[in-house]
Amino acid sequence: MPAELELCAGRMVGGDQPCFIIAEIGQNHQGDFEIAKKMIRMAKECGADCAKFQKSELEYKFNKKALERPYNSPHSWGKTYGEHKRHLEFSHDQYRELQKFAKEIGIYFTASGMDEMAVEFLHELGVPFFKVGSGDTNNFPYLKKTAQKGRPMVISSGMQSMDTMRRVYELVKPINPNFCFLQCTSAYPLLPEDVNLRVIKEFQSVFPDIPVGYSGHETGIAITVAAVAMGAKVVERHVTLDKTWKGSDHQASLEPKELTELVKSIRLVEKAMGSSVKRLMPCELACQNKLGKSVVAKVKIPAGTVLTLNMLTVKVAEPRGFPPEEIFDLEGKTVKQEIAEDESVTEESIENFNTRTKC
C-alpha cells in the first residue's frame, strides 16, 4: 500500500485514507474578488476538501516581451497578455482575505505557485501544501527551492515523460519525502482517449512509497470516478459557476451540481472498494438461505452404501445438506442410514462425518 502523508493538518492521504478532493478554482473567478469567495463557498458546500487558486508574480513568471504580446483571444481581459493576466491576479492582501474566509467556513485553502516568488509568498501565507502545476514539473530549480520549504507537495505530470517523473522523484525525495504525483494530461477539454488512466497504476508500481492521484481536465465526472477506483488518493478538478463564462478553463470545469455529484460518487466508490478478502458476506445470508444449493440423493441410497458420484446431484433443498463444493468429498463415504430419493444428504446420514476432508 502506498505511503501516507499528512497533506493538511490532521488530514492524511494515501493508504486507506479517503480520497482528497481539490476544487481547482484557478482563475475562473474572472478577476472578481466576490466571485472568488462565492466559489470557495461553493467548493465547501459541494463537499470538496480544498479550494485552490493559481498565484503568479507576473514579472517572475513571464519575460517582458511575453507580457507585451498582443492578446486578441475572445477570452482576453486586456489588449496584451500582461493586461489580461493582471486583470485575473489577486493581491497579497486579497489572498490573505480569501484564506481567512476559507478558514471561517471550514475548507482547506491553497494555490499553485506559478513561479518561485509566488511560492515565497504562499510559504509566508502558510498554505498547508504546495501544488506544482504541470508547467513547472520539469523546472528543476523551482522544484528544489519549493521542496526545501518543507511543506507537502502535490506534483502534476502533464506534458512530462516517465523519465522526467523519475528525475523529479530523485530530486525531491531526498529533500522532502512528503509529496505525491498526479497523472495529468494538459489539454482543455481533455478527450477520453488522451486521459491514460493506466499511468496511475504505472506510477504506483514505479513509485510505491508515495501516494498517486489524478488531475483531470475532461468533461463530466465518470473518468475521475474511475481514477479513484484505480487507486487515486488525490483528485483535482477545475470548477466554475458557469461554463459559458469567458475563459479557456470553464469548458473543462465542473459546475456546482457536477462537483456535488463527483464528491458523492467518489465517496460511494470508496465504500464499494471494501476489502480484498473474498468471503461470504453477512448481507448474502438471506440469499444463500433462500437459493443456496445442497447435495441431494439422485436415487434411493440404502444404509451401508458406499457413495459414488452418480448417486448424487445438487439442488435447492430442504433441509440444507452438504454444500455443492463438498460433493467430491462424499465419494467413498458410507451411508449409515437410508437416504430417500431427492432427499438432502446431511451430516447425520454419513459415517465418520468428522473425518471428511474440508475444502
UniProtKB/TrEMBL annotation:
Its EC number is 2.5.1.57. It catalyses: aldehydo-N-acetyl-D-mannosamine 6-phosphate + phosphoenolpyruvate + H2O = N-acetylneuraminate 9-phosphate + phosphate. Keywords: Transferase. It holds the Pfam family NeuB. Residues 294-353 form the AFP-like domain. Gene3D superfamilies: Aldolase class I, Antifreeze-like/N-acetylneuraminic acid synthase C-terminal domain. SUPFAM superfamilies: AFP III-like domain, Aldolase. GO terms for biological process: carbohydrate biosynthetic process; carbohydrate derivative biosynthetic process; N-acetylneuraminate metabolic process. This is N-acetylneuraminate-9-phosphate synthase. It comes from Hymenochirus boettgeri (Congo dwarf clawed frog).
